[in-house]
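Morning run. Coffee first, then this:
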Amino acid sequence: MSDKPLLSLVIAVYNGEQFLTTFFDSIKAQHLDSLELIVVNDGSRDNSSDIIQQYASEFSMFHVINQENQGVSAARNSGLAVATGEYIAFPDIDDVIYPGMYPRLLEMATQNRLDVATCNGTYVYDDGRPSKKIFPSDKLRSTEVLDGPTWLQRALASRKFLHVTWLNIYRHAFIKEQGFTFEHGLRHQDIPWTTEVLLTAQRVQYVDETFYDYLIHSASVSHTPGTDDTRMRNARHYMKILEMLDAINQRYPEQVRKVPACQWQIAKEGLGILHAINNITDLTKKREIIRELFERGVWSLIWKNARGLRQRWRLGRRYFRLKRYLA
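And here it is:
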Protein backbone atom coordinates (compact mmCIF):
# COMPACT_ATOMS: atom_id res chain seq x y z
CA MET A 1 0.00 0.00 0.00
CA SER A 2 1.33 3.44 -0.94
CA ASP A 3 2.34 5.87 1.77
CA LYS A 4 1.22 8.74 -0.46
CA PRO A 5 -1.68 10.65 1.17
CA LEU A 6 -4.90 10.84 -0.80
CA LEU A 7 -5.27 14.58 -0.21
CA SER A 8 -2.87 17.42 0.58
CA LEU A 9 -4.26 20.68 1.95
CA VAL A 10 -2.02 23.69 1.40
CA ILE A 11 -2.98 26.27 4.00
CA ALA A 12 -1.68 29.84 3.79
CA VAL A 13 -1.70 31.60 7.18
CA TYR A 14 -1.07 35.28 7.85
CA ASN A 15 -2.21 36.69 11.20
CA GLY A 16 -4.97 34.12 11.40
CA GLU A 17 -5.25 33.58 15.16
CA GLN A 18 -8.98 34.38 15.27
CA PHE A 19 -9.78 31.77 12.59
CA LEU A 20 -7.34 28.90 13.07
CA THR A 21 -9.07 26.96 15.85
CA THR A 22 -12.36 26.82 13.95
CA PHE A 23 -10.52 26.03 10.74
CA PHE A 24 -8.49 23.12 12.09
CA ASP A 25 -11.54 21.72 13.88
CA SER A 26 -13.42 21.79 10.55
CA ILE A 27 -10.62 19.80 8.93
CA LYS A 28 -10.72 17.25 11.76
CA ALA A 29 -14.46 16.94 11.15
CA GLN A 30 -13.77 15.78 7.58
CA HIS A 31 -12.67 12.44 9.11
CA LEU A 32 -10.14 11.69 6.40
CA ASP A 33 -7.74 8.82 7.06
CA SER A 34 -5.24 9.81 4.38
CA LEU A 35 -4.65 13.53 4.75
CA GLU A 36 -1.55 15.73 4.61
CA LEU A 37 -1.67 19.27 5.99
CA ILE A 38 0.97 21.73 4.83
CA VAL A 39 0.64 24.93 6.84
CA VAL A 40 2.58 27.88 5.47
CA ASN A 41 3.01 30.52 8.16
CA ASP A 42 3.56 33.55 5.96
CA GLY A 43 5.26 35.87 8.44
CA SER A 44 2.41 36.07 10.95
CA ARG A 45 2.95 38.58 13.76
CA ASP A 46 0.17 37.36 16.05
CA ASN A 47 -0.27 34.06 17.89
CA SER A 48 -0.86 32.02 14.75
CA SER A 49 2.38 30.07 15.22
CA ASP A 50 1.36 28.94 18.72
CA ILE A 51 -2.06 27.78 17.55
CA ILE A 52 -0.52 25.94 14.60
CA GLN A 53 1.79 24.07 16.95
CA GLN A 54 -1.11 23.16 19.24
CA TYR A 55 -2.72 21.27 16.37
CA ALA A 56 0.43 19.59 15.08
CA SER A 57 -0.26 16.45 17.12
CA GLU A 58 -3.89 16.28 15.98
CA PHE A 59 -2.97 15.13 12.47
CA SER A 60 -0.68 12.28 11.41
CA MET A 61 0.85 14.25 8.51
CA PHE A 62 1.29 17.86 9.56
CA HIS A 63 4.06 20.01 8.10
CA VAL A 64 4.80 23.65 8.89
CA ILE A 65 6.70 26.03 6.64
CA ASN A 66 7.71 29.33 8.23
CA GLN A 67 8.64 32.13 5.85
CA GLU A 68 8.79 35.89 5.72
CA ASN A 69 5.57 37.52 4.60
CA GLN A 70 5.31 37.24 0.82
CA GLY A 71 1.57 37.00 0.24
CA VAL A 72 -0.92 34.21 -0.32
CA SER A 73 0.37 33.24 -3.77
CA ALA A 74 3.93 32.74 -2.53
CA ALA A 75 2.62 30.79 0.47
CA ARG A 76 0.58 28.51 -1.77
CA ASN A 77 3.58 27.96 -4.04
CA SER A 78 5.76 27.02 -1.05
CA GLY A 79 3.21 24.42 0.02
CA LEU A 80 2.63 23.17 -3.51
CA ALA A 81 6.36 22.54 -3.93
CA VAL A 82 6.47 20.00 -1.09
CA ALA A 83 2.97 18.46 -1.21
CA THR A 84 2.86 14.71 -1.81
CA GLY A 85 -0.89 13.93 -1.99
CA GLU A 86 -2.66 12.38 -4.94
CA TYR A 87 -5.04 15.33 -4.84
CA ILE A 88 -4.44 18.87 -3.60
CA ALA A 89 -6.61 21.73 -2.36
CA PHE A 90 -6.12 25.32 -1.16
CA PRO A 91 -8.72 26.22 1.49
CA ASP A 92 -8.88 29.70 3.03
CA ILE A 93 -8.67 29.76 6.82
CA ASP A 94 -11.30 32.45 7.40
CA ASP A 95 -14.12 30.55 5.70
CA VAL A 96 -16.30 27.66 6.92
CA ILE A 97 -15.82 24.15 5.52
CA TYR A 98 -18.73 21.79 6.10
CA PRO A 99 -18.22 18.18 7.23
CA GLY A 100 -18.18 15.91 4.22
CA MET A 101 -16.81 18.37 1.66
CA TYR A 102 -13.49 16.68 0.98
CA PRO A 103 -14.83 13.11 1.25
CA ARG A 104 -17.49 14.02 -1.36
CA LEU A 105 -15.02 15.63 -3.75
CA LEU A 106 -12.53 12.78 -3.33
CA GLU A 107 -15.30 10.26 -4.03
CA MET A 108 -16.11 12.05 -7.28
CA ALA A 109 -12.45 12.44 -8.24
CA THR A 110 -11.37 8.87 -7.61
CA GLN A 111 -14.42 7.22 -9.13
CA ASN A 112 -14.31 9.33 -12.29
CA ARG A 113 -10.54 9.90 -12.62
CA LEU A 114 -11.03 13.67 -12.48
CA ASP A 115 -8.45 16.39 -12.92
CA VAL A 116 -10.74 18.82 -11.07
CA ALA A 117 -13.71 18.14 -8.78
CA THR A 118 -15.74 21.13 -7.62
CA CYS A 119 -18.82 21.89 -5.51
CA ASN A 120 -21.00 24.83 -4.49
CA GLY A 121 -20.82 27.19 -1.54
CA THR A 122 -22.62 30.07 0.09
CA TYR A 123 -21.92 33.78 0.38
CA VAL A 124 -22.34 34.72 4.05
CA TYR A 125 -22.41 38.43 4.95
CA ASP A 126 -21.56 39.80 8.38
CA ASP A 127 -23.75 42.89 7.96
CA GLY A 128 -27.11 41.11 8.20
CA ARG A 129 -27.79 40.57 4.50
CA PRO A 130 -29.26 37.13 3.74
CA SER A 131 -26.83 34.49 2.55
CA LYS A 132 -27.05 33.19 -1.01
CA LYS A 133 -25.56 30.42 -3.10
CA ILE A 134 -22.33 31.24 -4.90
CA PHE A 135 -23.54 29.43 -8.02
CA PRO A 136 -27.35 29.79 -8.32
CA SER A 137 -28.90 26.39 -9.06
CA ASP A 138 -30.96 27.81 -11.93
CA LYS A 139 -27.75 29.01 -13.61
CA LEU A 140 -25.33 26.12 -12.94
CA ARG A 141 -26.55 22.59 -12.35
CA SER A 142 -24.60 19.47 -11.42
CA THR A 143 -22.76 18.04 -14.41
CA GLU A 144 -21.59 14.76 -15.80
CA VAL A 145 -17.85 14.44 -16.41
CA LEU A 146 -16.86 17.18 -18.87
CA ASP A 147 -13.64 18.31 -20.45
CA GLY A 148 -12.35 21.50 -18.84
CA PRO A 149 -13.08 23.88 -21.72
CA THR A 150 -16.69 22.71 -21.93
CA TRP A 151 -17.20 23.34 -18.21
CA LEU A 152 -15.42 26.70 -18.40
CA GLN A 153 -17.65 27.86 -21.25
CA ARG A 154 -20.76 26.68 -19.45
CA ALA A 155 -19.65 28.35 -16.21
CA LEU A 156 -18.64 31.68 -17.75
CA ALA A 157 -21.76 31.77 -19.94
CA SER A 158 -23.87 31.60 -16.77
CA ARG A 159 -22.52 35.06 -15.83
CA LYS A 160 -22.51 33.76 -12.22
CA PHE A 161 -19.17 31.94 -12.17
CA LEU A 162 -16.67 32.85 -9.47
CA HIS A 163 -12.98 32.16 -10.13
CA VAL A 164 -11.83 30.53 -6.89
CA THR A 165 -9.48 27.76 -5.87
CA TRP A 166 -11.11 26.85 -2.58
CA LEU A 167 -14.19 25.05 -3.92
CA ASN A 168 -12.02 22.64 -5.88
CA ILE A 169 -9.67 19.73 -5.46
CA TYR A 170 -7.09 19.05 -8.16
CA ARG A 171 -5.28 15.93 -9.30
CA HIS A 172 -1.77 16.71 -8.12
CA ALA A 173 0.02 15.01 -11.02
CA PHE A 174 -2.01 17.13 -13.47
CA ILE A 175 -0.98 20.36 -11.72
CA LYS A 176 2.68 19.26 -11.68
CA GLU A 177 2.65 18.13 -15.32
CA GLN A 178 1.33 21.52 -16.40
CA GLY A 179 3.77 23.36 -14.14
CA PHE A 180 1.05 25.56 -12.67
CA THR A 181 1.95 28.01 -9.89
CA PHE A 182 0.35 31.13 -8.44
CA GLU A 183 1.45 34.64 -9.48
CA HIS A 184 3.32 36.35 -6.64
CA GLY A 185 2.01 39.67 -5.37
CA LEU A 186 -1.14 39.64 -7.49
CA ARG A 187 -4.56 40.14 -5.97
CA HIS A 188 -7.32 38.03 -7.49
CA GLN A 189 -4.76 35.65 -8.94
CA ASP A 190 -7.44 32.93 -8.83
CA ILE A 191 -8.79 34.36 -12.10
CA PRO A 192 -5.85 33.40 -14.35
CA TRP A 193 -5.17 30.23 -12.29
CA THR A 194 -8.70 28.86 -12.70
CA THR A 195 -8.89 29.84 -16.36
CA GLU A 196 -5.67 28.04 -17.29
CA VAL A 197 -6.44 24.99 -15.16
CA LEU A 198 -9.85 24.53 -16.78
CA LEU A 199 -8.59 25.15 -20.31
CA THR A 200 -6.13 22.28 -19.91
CA ALA A 201 -8.08 19.84 -17.71
CA GLN A 202 -9.46 16.80 -19.50
CA ARG A 203 -11.91 15.55 -16.87
CA VAL A 204 -13.91 17.93 -14.66
CA GLN A 205 -17.11 17.50 -12.70
CA TYR A 206 -19.26 19.93 -10.72
CA VAL A 207 -21.81 18.98 -8.08
CA ASP A 208 -24.42 21.49 -6.94
CA GLU A 209 -24.03 20.59 -3.28
CA THR A 210 -23.15 23.28 -0.73
CA PHE A 211 -20.12 22.55 1.42
CA TYR A 212 -18.44 25.92 1.98
CA ASP A 213 -19.31 29.32 3.47
CA TYR A 214 -17.42 32.20 1.93
CA LEU A 215 -17.49 34.92 4.56
CA ILE A 216 -17.74 38.48 3.26
CA HIS A 217 -16.47 40.86 5.91
CA SER A 218 -17.98 44.32 5.51
CA ALA A 219 -14.82 45.86 7.00
CA SER A 220 -12.42 44.04 4.67
CA VAL A 221 -10.35 45.90 2.09
CA SER A 222 -12.23 44.20 -0.75
CA HIS A 223 -15.64 45.36 0.43
CA THR A 224 -15.12 48.89 1.72
CA PRO A 225 -14.88 52.13 -0.26
CA GLY A 226 -11.32 52.69 -1.36
CA THR A 227 -9.03 55.66 -1.68
CA ASP A 228 -7.63 56.92 -4.95
CA ASP A 229 -4.40 55.03 -4.23
CA THR A 230 -6.21 51.73 -3.57
CA ARG A 231 -8.26 52.22 -6.73
CA MET A 232 -5.07 52.74 -8.73
CA ARG A 233 -3.48 49.64 -7.21
CA ASN A 234 -6.60 47.64 -7.97
CA ALA A 235 -6.63 48.88 -11.56
CA ARG A 236 -3.00 47.83 -11.98
CA HIS A 237 -3.68 44.37 -10.52
CA TYR A 238 -6.47 43.89 -13.02
CA MET A 239 -4.34 45.19 -15.89
CA LYS A 240 -1.86 42.44 -15.04
CA ILE A 241 -4.68 39.90 -14.88
CA LEU A 242 -5.89 40.91 -18.35
CA GLU A 243 -2.37 40.58 -19.73
CA MET A 244 -2.12 37.12 -18.16
CA LEU A 245 -5.52 36.07 -19.53
CA ASP A 246 -4.52 37.22 -23.01
CA ALA A 247 -1.26 35.23 -22.79
CA ILE A 248 -3.24 32.17 -21.66
CA ASN A 249 -5.62 32.55 -24.61
CA GLN A 250 -2.64 32.68 -26.97
CA ARG A 251 -1.07 29.57 -25.38
CA TYR A 252 -4.18 27.46 -25.90
CA PRO A 253 -5.79 28.63 -29.18
CA GLU A 254 -7.56 25.33 -29.89
CA GLN A 255 -9.15 25.19 -26.45
CA VAL A 256 -10.11 28.88 -26.56
CA ARG A 257 -12.00 28.30 -29.80
CA LYS A 258 -14.31 26.10 -27.72
CA VAL A 259 -14.62 28.80 -25.06
CA PRO A 260 -15.63 32.11 -26.68
CA ALA A 261 -16.38 33.41 -23.17
CA CYS A 262 -12.59 33.55 -22.63
CA GLN A 263 -12.62 36.73 -24.72
CA TRP A 264 -15.79 37.99 -23.06
CA GLN A 265 -14.25 37.74 -19.59
CA ILE A 266 -11.29 39.93 -20.59
CA ALA A 267 -13.67 42.70 -21.67
CA LYS A 268 -15.81 42.14 -18.57
CA GLU A 269 -12.83 42.49 -16.20
CA GLY A 270 -11.72 45.46 -18.28
CA LEU A 271 -15.00 47.21 -17.56
CA GLY A 272 -14.17 46.74 -13.88
CA ILE A 273 -10.88 48.57 -14.43
CA LEU A 274 -12.71 51.44 -16.11
CA HIS A 275 -15.16 51.63 -13.21
CA ALA A 276 -12.26 51.89 -10.73
CA ILE A 277 -10.64 54.62 -12.83
CA ASN A 278 -13.91 56.54 -13.04
CA ASN A 279 -14.07 56.66 -9.23
CA ILE A 280 -10.61 58.24 -8.86
CA THR A 281 -11.17 61.83 -7.79
CA ASP A 282 -7.64 63.25 -8.08
CA LEU A 283 -7.34 64.36 -11.72
CA THR A 284 -3.55 63.97 -11.77
CA LYS A 285 -3.81 60.37 -10.58
CA LYS A 286 -6.71 59.68 -12.90
CA ARG A 287 -4.73 60.91 -15.91
CA GLU A 288 -1.72 58.85 -14.81
CA ILE A 289 -3.63 55.58 -14.71
CA ILE A 290 -5.55 56.35 -17.93
CA ARG A 291 -2.27 57.05 -19.71
CA GLU A 292 -0.90 53.74 -18.41
CA LEU A 293 -4.03 51.94 -19.62
CA PHE A 294 -3.36 53.09 -23.18
CA GLU A 295 0.44 52.90 -23.14
CA ARG A 296 0.48 49.31 -21.85
CA GLY A 297 -1.94 48.33 -24.59
CA VAL A 298 -4.57 47.27 -22.08
CA TRP A 299 -7.30 49.34 -23.70
CA SER A 300 -6.60 47.68 -27.06
CA LEU A 301 -6.71 44.31 -25.33
CA ILE A 302 -10.10 45.08 -23.78
CA TRP A 303 -11.56 46.36 -27.06
CA LYS A 304 -10.16 43.44 -29.08
CA ASN A 305 -11.83 40.92 -26.79
CA ALA A 306 -15.22 42.63 -26.49
CA ARG A 307 -18.09 40.45 -27.63
CA GLY A 308 -21.54 41.63 -28.61
CA LEU A 309 -23.05 45.04 -29.20
CA ARG A 310 -23.74 45.64 -25.50
CA GLN A 311 -20.10 45.25 -24.42
CA ARG A 312 -18.82 47.34 -27.32
CA TRP A 313 -21.39 50.07 -26.66
CA ARG A 314 -20.43 50.23 -22.98
CA LEU A 315 -16.74 50.36 -23.85
CA GLY A 316 -17.21 52.90 -26.64
CA ARG A 317 -18.92 55.35 -24.27
CA ARG A 318 -16.05 55.07 -21.82
CA TYR A 319 -13.37 55.44 -24.51
CA PHE A 320 -14.35 59.00 -25.38
CA ARG A 321 -14.66 59.89 -21.69
CA LEU A 322 -11.14 58.58 -21.03
CA LYS A 323 -9.67 60.45 -23.99
CA ARG A 324 -11.21 63.72 -22.77
CA TYR A 325 -9.22 63.44 -19.56
CA LEU A 326 -6.01 63.16 -21.58
CA ALA A 327 -6.81 66.06 -23.89
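The mean pLDDT is 94. Good start to the day.
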